[in-house]
Amino acid sequence: RKGPIRVTASGLMSVAQVKMTTILVMSATAIFGSALALHGGFLIACLIPFSLLLAVGYTAGPFPLAYLGIAEFFVLLFFGPVATGMTYYLQTGALSGPAFAAGIAPGLLSCSILIINNLRDVSEDREANKKTLIVRFGTRFGKWEYCFAIVLACLMPLFTLGRHPLVLLTMLVLIPGLFLITAVCKNTDPLAYNPLFGKTGKLLTLYTTLYFFTQIL
Q1: Mean pLDDT per segment of 10 residues, for the chain of length 217 residues?
Q2: In which domain, by residue range, is 126 found?
Q3: Closest by alpha carbon to 120, among 197, 59, 6?
C-alpha cells in the first residue's frame, strides 16, 4: 500500500470494531450537533443529519460519492463555504455572502489534498472501479486540477477584499504554492506524493492563519 496503514487491512482493528467506533463518533456528533441546532434553529437542524448522511455516503451505500467522481464538489462545499458561512450564521443568526465566500479558498485547498490522494492511488482506484476524476480523465488532468485549485485559492482575496484590504497578504501563500505545483507537475513516482500531503495541508493552515490575522488587524 502506498498511503497510510489501514486499520482493518493491517489487522489493528476488526471490521466490527471499526463499525462500532464509527457509530460512536457519529452518535457523539449528533448529540453535540443537537445542542447547536437548539441555538441555530431550522437550518442547523437540517444541516447536521445531511452532513452525517454525506459522511456515510462518501465511501458507503449504493452510490458512494468517492466512487462517482464528485467527491471534489462536496469537499469544496463542506470544507469551505458551508463551514465558514454556517459558523457565521450560528454566531450571528444571519446569512452572509462574504462569510460563505471566505470559505471558497479553504475549500479549494482542501480539494487539493484530495487531488494528491487521487493522483497517488490512480492505479489502485482504476482496478477497484473507483471512478475519480483522475481515473476518468487521467493524471495530466489531475495535475492541472491541483494547479487550478492552488492558484484560484491564492487569488480569491482579489474577489473578497471587502472592508479588509490587508487580506491581500494571504496571496503570499501563492509563493510556496508554486513550489508545490512544480513538484506535483514534475512527479512520476506515486510514492513521492506522500510528503506532498503534509505540505499541502500546511499550505491550507498557512492560508487560513494569515486570513484570520488580516481580519482582526
Answers
A1: 66 81 90 89 91 87 87 95 95 91 95 96 92 95 97 89 76 95 95 94 96 86
A2: 58-216
A3: 197
